[in-house]
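Worked example 2:
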Amino acid sequence: MNRIETTYCKRCNAPFECKANDINNCQCNSIVLSKETEAVIKKLYNGCLCIKCLTEVNNTKQL
């Protein structure tokens, strides 16, 4: 059984549903990040970002 967990974005602290155990249905699976953007996010944040922050970072490179 896949577990859905409410977590908080490590960038803006907004609550969202994390589906790391069901990655195909997770919000983060709907966005394509460059390898460089992924590396920076991993370096700066210890955990998941919400789709709003992922989109902002991806589109504007604002970290």
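The mean pLDDT is 85. The two ends are 34 Å apart (CA to CA).
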